[in-house]
TrEMBL record:
Species classification: Bacteria, Bacillati, Actinomycetota, Actinomycetes, Micromonosporales
Biased composition (Basic and acidic residues): 587-599
Residue ranges of domain GIY-YIG in the record: 232-310
InterPro entries, alphabetized: DnaQ, GIY-YIG_endonuc, GIY-YIG_endonuc_sf, GIY-YIG_UvrC_Cho, Ribonucl_H, RNaseH-like_sf, RNaseH_sf, UvrABC_protein_C
Annotated protein name in UniProt: DEDD exonuclease domain-containing protein
Gene3D superfamilies named among the record's database cross-references: GIY-YIG endonuclease (3.40.1440.10), Ribonuclease H-like superfamily/Ribonuclease H (3.30.420.10)
Length: 599
């Protein structure tokens, strides 16, 4: 049987439910350790095979208790084990079986940190024994002295990390003899010697010791001092280079804990390792609450474009679909909104996505696709689309500007500002026809266009509903009894604060409104902030525990707006990604599946 999985505890396990650090993890001197050693028959960890258990409980260098017993393994003892340990079958015959020993051992381990030399071996046997005999393994934190020694001692000091070698190096009072209690006592002295050595590495807590034992890079170990002195508060942290350039910007509910995680074995990203090598300090920006931290992160990334951040670096690189203001309007991809009467859809993160949504519009309504500026007086030769019947040929004046506005331009305007059903139904009808003819690849192309168009429409209507309001004041309870307060103006976070617990939040709210940023209205669905910032604010406002305190107007969306197609959008996206087994990744295998995409 394979050895049970062993995972050494991480720093996260030291945190209690409210995120605070447990007292036992604050200092190695205050931590209670149970140093354990097992002797076995040498076989696999299958729930049996343990022949002897020795454990010593210590804290602050003082021995608190001892647990030692032989164990009847329930199987033959190999001769080489007798030669190695001196334990004979005659000695084990009257010994209790492991199922009788486990209750006392588990009680001895309660509330302590388990220490062993090559801990995966000992922990694996104990976990297997608990599983075999119906005992719940308490999953204590584990510190492996062999792993710590590999990091703390050089080859020049010790040729290997065997227990006997380390016991001799640290002048242990008891030398290991391959008997459980002697080996456990030797491990105690090795542990104390290692703890003294860890002080030179600025390792003073249990969490630091556990992380130190892991395979962190030399850069992480050398730079871990950058996390010193940071506050345990929500906010933004900025890794800066020697010339004060921002290298990386991040956010967390606990700045100190998050920054420390960059110097642990859990951080394996190559670009972050490179960033840590170039960083010389970490700047902390304390925030009132998590929403302010998220917004400040976005703004700092946009302002400094840190080389090691991958997202949100260039919010200005968005594009829009514009319905031009001319006699025969057309769709145009533009980079900025103008304060005109044109209809805009967006923002899109890339030109490709905008063109995909435009293709969906062309599939649904007869908007012209040419880029010429057409005259209402002078005809222009028609293109191939008119000959194929896919364009009403306004260039040849086969349709009046009034008819064109009604049949082509108005459905697009309605789709982005009100009811998109005409466009959605037209696309769904085409998908159903194609799937009925088994033209699944073409139907999949239409589905991707529908997704791009519908996603942008739903997003823009949500943004517009918030950004048209001059002000929204909202609050939600924090974890300590106070109130997180946010003032939002035209979709931009204008101010944030947290009222003290057990005090009425109104004075704080009034004060923060008076000092809030002045935000002027502007054109488009995101007049005063990036779309990503407004979406973060929307997510915070829409949480069930957020309360709207005051608004300058009605926060409303169209009754028959794009939001009612959210379920359709989710189904289509799931089908496109292959995550929805009820909708084939090729859109459909039968026409019934296309109908199932409808609401």
């Amino acid at each position: 049987m394979a050895q049970p999985a062993y995972v050494q505890g991480t720093l996260d396990t030291l945190l209690s439910a409210d995120g605070s650090v447990e007292p036992a993890a604050l200092s190695l001197a205050d931590t209670t350790f149970v140093v354990l050693d097992l002797e076995t028959t040498g076989g696999a960890a299958d729930g049996a095979g343990i022949t002897e258990i020795g454990a010593v409980k210590v804290r602050g260098g003082v021995e608190l208790g001892v647990f030692a017993t032989l164990v009847n393994p329930g199987e033959r003892l190999p001769p080489f084990i007798t030669v190695l340990t001196g334990i004979t079958e005659a000695m084990l015959a009257p010994a209790p079986p492991i199922e009788s020993v486990l209750p006392s051992l588990l009680e001895f381990l309660r509330g302590a940190v388990l220490v062993a030399h090559n801990a995966p071996y000992d922990v694996g046997f104990l976990k297997a024994a608990c599983a075999r005999h119906g005992y719940l393994w308490p999953n204590p934190r584990v510190l492996d002295t062999a792993a710590v020694a590999r990091r703390a001692l050089t080859r020049d000091e010790v040729p290997n990390r065997k227990l006997g070698t380390l016991a001799q190096f640290f002048h242990a009072t008891v030398q290991p003899t391959h008997r459980a209690l002697d080996d456990a006592r030797a491990t105690v002295d090795v542990l104390h010697g290692l703890i003294e050595r860890l002080g030179s590495y600025r390792v003073h807590t249990l969490g630091d010791a556990i992380e130190f034992a892991k395979a962190v890079t030399p850069t992480q170990r050398r730079q871990r001092h950058l996390a010193d002195g940071l506050p345990h508060v929500p906010g933004v942290y900025v890794f800066r280079a020697a010339d004060d350039r921002a290298l990386y910007v991040g956010t967390s509910k606990d700045i100190a804990t998050r920054v420390r995680s960059y110097f642990t074995a859990s951080e394996k990203r190559a670009r972050i390792s490179e960033m840590l090598g170039a960083a010389t300090r970490v700047e902390a920006v304390e925030c009132a609450h998590s929403l302010e931290a998220e917004v400040r992160e976005l703004r700092l990334i946009a302002a400094h474009s840190p080389p090691y951040n991958r997202r949100s670096k260039y919010p200005e690189r968005v594009v829009w679909l514009k319905l031009t203001t001319e006699a025969y309007p057309r769709l145009s991809v533009v980079r900025a909104l103008a304060d005109d009467d044109a209809a805009y859809l967006g923002p899109f993160s890339s030109r490709r996505t905008a063109e995909l949504a435009a293709a969906g519009v062309y599939d649904a309504v007869p908007l012209r696709q040419c880029s010429h500026k057409l005259s209402v007086r002078t005809p222009t030769p028609a293109c191939a689309l008119a000959e194929l019947g896919r364009c009403a040929a306004p260039c040849e004046h086969k349709i009046t500007p009034e008819e064109y506005a009604t049949t082509a331009a108005l459905p697009f305007r309605d789709a982005i500002h009100g009811d998109p059903s005409q466009v959605v139904d037209a696309l769904m009808d085409r998908i159903e026809i194609l799937s009925g003819k088994c033209r699944y690849e073409e139907a999949a192309v239409l589905r991707s266009r529908l997704i791009a168009l519908l996603r942008a429409t739903v997003r823009m209507q949500r943004l517009s509903a918030l950004t048209r309001l001059g002000e929204i004041v909202a609050a939600r309870r924090d974890t300590v009894g106070g109130w997180e307060i946010s003032v939002v103006r035209h979709g931009r976070l204008a101010a944030a604060a947290t009222s003290p617990p057990r005090e009425h939040p109104r004075p704080t709210l009034d004060a923060v409104r008076l000092t809030a940023e002045t935000v002027l209205p502007g054109p488009g669905p995101v007049p005063a902030a990036t779309a990503e910032e407004t979406e973060r604010i929307l997510a915070w406002l829409e949480r069930p525990d957020t309360r709207l305190v005051e608004t300058s107007g009605d926060w409303v969306s169209p009754v028959r707006g794009a939001a009612r197609f959210t379920a359709l959008l989710n189904r289509a996206e799931a089908a496109a990604s292959g995550k929805d087994s009820s909708v084939r990744s090729s859109v459909t295998d039968r026409s019934d599946d296309a109908r199932s995409l409808r609401l």
